[in-house]
Amino acid sequence: MKALSMESKVSRRLTQPTATEVCAHIYAPRLRDFAAGFGYLTDINAAHLLMLHGTGLIPSDTAATLARALLRIEREGADAVPLDPQREDAYFNYEARLMEVAGADAGGRLHVARSRNDILATQDRLRARDAVLVLLDTLADTRGIVLRKAAEHADTVMPGYTHLQAAQPITYGFYLSGIAQAISRDMTRLRHALETLDACPLGAGALAGTAFPIDRSATAAWLGFSGYVDNALDAVASRDFAWEILSAVTIATVTWGRVAQDLFVWATPEFGLIDFPDSVAGTSSIMPQKKNPVALEYLKGKGGHMLGLLTASLAALKGTHFSHSGDGSRETMRGFWEAMVEAQRCAEVLRLVLAHAAPQPDTMLNRARRDFSSATDLADMLVRDAGMSFREAHHVVGAVVREALDRHLPACEIDSAMVAKAALAHTGRTLHLDAEAVAKCLDPIEGVAARTAAGGPAPARVRAQVERQLSSLTHDLEAIATQRAAVATSRDALKAALQALAAAR
């Protein structure tokens, strides 16, 4: 028999130590994530131990020894576990420490009826669940801030833009209410993904289950799942819950970047519609006058980053077999964990930006009065009061706008005579329009107030939208709190049962 130093540290099937390059480039990078998964691995070990003891698959004295060892390892923390790339990954390094603390025989018995494959799949779901719940909390907080500001600014009239050209008057509150609805859908997608991952893979083994009479429902309950993944192969082969979450956060960050793009433009001196405090800005190393919107630029750029992570993850998965493999179950998840960190950062920056964006009401209203965004209201008046078809009215008002531009007049200086002149030239009809009526329909405040159709920007409509969304937010918060409480209750029960087992003599 060869000397131990010439053999693999984890298998007698392998008669040579792992190559330096494999350790350096494959196993060592995996171990950098050891601390992030340490608590979940401890919980998985505890749940499996309690199940083995409950089904009589492990003697009571050995179970108590293992329980005490797991509690000690948890108490000492991840830093107390020596990490050796020659042991391949987190599980083998954890097991080596367990065998030191509990003894080789007891420590080696915990792995009965399971595999690293179902352990890793379970760890991924536990960790992803917590990450999503934290992100949902941040988005709910952001949504609440946005809705409160939407109600506050339901009367703050501003230009609405399409193609970055003045379109029709809206209010800043109307704009924020739209953002809140988009965040609501982001949360809905994430909550659906939580439902998708709510099944425990533990007990699936490598891919074909086990011949031991285990109780998968017990381990699922200890770990806060409502049930287990019914097919053992699917349990270790699939990470589609992660792709659903990654897709959701990619969609979300792309949307947040679009919001940032609006604010980025509106905060320029040329627009002057929004201002930000210095605390969310940067400056220049050479130009002393600069106040740079660094937070907005961060949000604008992250959508591309997330899209790249999603694409890379799915590309790594494509062509893999429907089973466990390093590329299918590990390489594909690297981008996912990075994406969850980035999504949380983005959500926190978005919350900061939207909480501190300060609309400039006078500038907003003045811009809306001068920039022809009320032209549609003038066309609507011709349809309503002069009996024109909308297309005919569109041509007449277009001619009025053209004349105003040629004369360098703002929209608020258009008068009834200009409208009558254009109507005569383009329709051959003589109009007798009330001067006050023309001025009123060109007033953006009046125009916004008149848009009372469902979904419109009239202040009363916006406030009603906000009330409905706040009610929806309350429902979402209750659902998230219920799920978080259920997870916490399961974990508390797991720890209490482990401590009781450890105290047994």
Explain what you see.
This protein has 505 residues and is mostly helical. It has three domains: 15-111, Orthogonal Bundle (Fumarase C, Chain B, domain 1), CATH 1.10.275.10; 117-359, Fumarase/aspartase (Central domain) (Fumarase C, Chain A, domain 2, Up-down Bundle); 375-442, Orthogonal Bundle (Ribonucleotide Reductase Protein R1, domain 1), CATH 1.10.40. It has helices at 20-31, 34-54, 60-76, 90-102, 104-109, 116-152, 172-197, 216-222, 232-237, 240-266, 294-317, 326-356, 361-370, 375-386, 390-406, 416-427, 435-441, 444-450, 459-503, and strands spanning 157-162, 165-171, 274-275, 358-359. The strands form two sheets. A two-stranded antiparallel sheet has the order 1-2. The protein has a two-stranded antiparallel ribbon with strand order 3-4. Helix 3 packs across helix 4 and helix 10 (240-266) packs parallel to helix 12 (326-356). It starts with 19 loop residues before the first helix and ends with a helix. The mean pLDDT is 92.
